[in-house]
Amino acid sequence: MTPATQPTRRLLGVEWLTIVYVVITTIMTLFYFDTLQHPIQMLGLRAIAAGLIVLANMAALHLSPRWALAVRTMPLLALLVWWYPETYDFCSQLPYKDHWFAAADQQLFGCQPSLLFAQVLPQTLWSEAFNMGYYAYYYMMAAVIIYYIVRQPDDYNRATTIFLGSFFVFYLIFEFLPVGGPQYYFQALTDIYGVDVYKLTGHTAAAAQELIKINGTGTPAGMFPDVGHYFASHEAAMLPEVKGIFSQLVIGAQEYGEHPTAAFPSSHVGMSTVTMLLAWRADNRRLFYILMPFYLLLVAATVYIRAHYLIDSIAGLIFAAILYYLFNRFIPYD
Predict the structure, then answer these.
(1) How far apart are CA 28 and CA 36, in angstroms?
(2) Distance between CA atoms of 77 and 81, rounded to whole angstroms?
(3) Can you give the pTM of this predicted structure?
(4) Would you tell me how many other CB atoms lie within 10 Å of the CB of residue 283?
(5) pLDDT at 289 exceeding the cut of 90
(6) DSSP per residue over 241-268, as a string?
(7) Residues 216-265: pLDDT tens digits?
(8) What pLDDT is attached to residue 334?
(9) What is the full DSSP assignment across 212-234?
(10) For tag attachment on the chain, is the N or C end more exposed, with fewer CB atoms within 10 Å?
(11) Distance in angstroms (rounded) separating the CA atoms of residues 221 and 205
(12) What is the average pLDDT score of the chain?
């Protein structure tokens, strides 16, 4: 690793990762060009990313090593906000697989946790606590990244490479494995079949009847319907009830920037876990312990607000551990 006290003109890990992601998604954009909604804008964003790398490297020559690193990395990290909506553009080209994950939850847990959780704990106190945790997602990540550049700059290059690399892996999975999540899937079942999805919370006679209503007489109760390309043209979601300021903030954020995409594995769980692992390896554990309550609430919130099937959140934990190990172990940081 190149210490922050030693300037380098070579490409940083985040710059190489951005270039790789831009190349892969440019090929995908050209492949789907005729069916994407905004292919020209998507190609333009890739040109902007390339330009940012060039301009940031030029500007960094006139800065101290520490702030040169910040100038070269921060714009690329900020681009994650613009890359995310594209996962919907790409994954909506393929048939959605929500029925796999609804069925997996039913088989593994005997119910639909994403429907049941908020019913078991409907009180405003719980709703606000979980929504607060979910909303803390971006602030947790920003706090850890800022901590590294301010207090631990010699490890900043490594931390941002792990961070951005993990994000890109999640995004690529989303683009090739379309899963909208329970808030979209169960709303679709209501809109298409007119079923009462809250009866699907367990292996009960009511659940069996609702699934038979969907699939026809004699269909096994564990069989969930394939909605195919439905989400390419329908984005109605089961939004949680507004019970306070944090639930209102989450609903507002979802209405503004959420789409039927990015459900499996949960990047909220995955990237917050990567964030916590980076906080743990920092030279002061205080930040880790401060963030821990928000992290626990966030993980639970992914299911509570119906953003993810429970299997998605479990997979997010597993993927985070694997990605953290692989990027930390095998990616050079010089």
Answers:
(1) 10
(2) 8
(3) 0.92
(4) 10
(5) yes
(6) PP-SHHHHHHHHHHHHH--S--TTTTHH
(7) 654 555 578 899 999 999 999 987 777 889 999 998 888 878 899 999 99
(8) 56
(9) HHHH-TT--TT-PPP-TTGGGT-
(10) C
(11) 9
(12) 90
Q: How many angstroms separate the CA atoms of 99 and 96, rounded?
A: 8
The confidence band for 323, taking pLDDT boundaries of 50, 70 and 90, is: very high
d(CA 78, CA 167): 12
Q: For tokens 């069996």, what's the residue?
A: 208
Relative orientation angle of helices 137-151 and 65-78, to the nearest 10 degrees = 160
Query: What SS3 class is residue 308?
Result: coil
**Contact 214/195 with Cβ under 8 angstroms?**
yes
Query: pLDDT-based confidence at 127, cuts 50/70/90?
Result: very high
Q: How many whole angstroms separate alpha carbon 322 and alpha carbon 315?
A: 11
Question: Is-contact 22 14, C-beta < 8 A?
Answer: no
> What is the rounded CA–CA span in Å between residue 48 and residue 71?
15
Cβ-contact 251, 242 below 8 angstroms: yes
Beta-carbon-side half-sphere exposure of residue 201 (alpha carbons within 13 Å): 12
Amino acid identity, position 292? M
